[in-house]
Amino acid sequence: MEQFIRRCVAVFAAAGMAVACATPPEPSRYRLTSSGEHWDEVNGDRVVDDLLPRYAEFFAVVLDLEQSAEPKVKRLRDDLERRPTDRSNYDALNSLAIAYFEFNYRAEADRGGGLDYLGRSFQSAKLLAVPWRAYSITADPELRDAILDFFEDAGSGEKLGTAATAPRVARIVESLAAKEDDPGRRTRIRSIADGIRARSEHPQPVE
Q1: How many helices (H) does the chain have, and how many strands (E)?
Q2: Cα separation values, 136 from 18, 72, 81, 139, 147, Å
């Protein structure tokens, strides 16, 4: 993972916003499901390479291993809450997801490490709050589904560092039920929260 991040930073510094990859055919969705332990590529969809040009300043902070600054999320928050919904909402969601998974991983790698752990854990929690707020602002059912896809992924325990923080995600997901009038989506919210808790209480053995 560190080698990948350093490569991204090197490419970013050398080429600015030039990215040599084709835009995926379906960008208007949550794109990181089933990416395995990492978040850089999903079945040939190089998500990070696609999003780097749009949020260059944001990723310059997120992908710099030596950077201790907090990434500025105002532009991404505005894009995620944009109405009517367009691709920019989903680009913001996926970019925030990448930042969350990266900061959450770094926090868990530093667990017990004092201020470094606390700072990074706080940063990852603040990143979770952005899509949580957007859920109550948007009335677009597809965007709401995509936000739930992200929270389900964040609580799956699949990506590095997420198993330890899954119970926190379960509580956040459960709180979304109060924002939801659609019975089917409320059922999904309960299912996601219950699934996260079940996996946390009965983790699968590492093979």
Answers
A1: 9, 0
A2: 35, 21, 9, 8, 11
If you compute the radius of gyration of the chain from its CA atoms, what whole number of angstroms results? 17
Q: Which residues contact 75 (CB under 8 A, 6 or more apart)?
A: 55, 58
pLDDT band at 115 (very low <50, low <70, confident <90, very high): low
- Written as six digits, the tokens of 192 are 């996601």
CB 147 within 8 A of CB 135: yes
Which of 13-17, 24-28, 74-78, 197-201 shows the lowest mean pLDDT across its residues? 13-17
For residue 99 the two structure tokens come to 């930042």
Question: Which range scores top for mean pLDDT: 32-36, 39-43, 99-103?
Answer: 99-103
Query: Nearest-5° angle of CA 92, CA 7, CA 107?
Result: 60
With vertex at residue 124, the alpha carbon angle to CA 133 and CA 116, rounded to the nearest 5 degrees, is 150
Cis peptide leading into residue 183 (ω within 30°): no
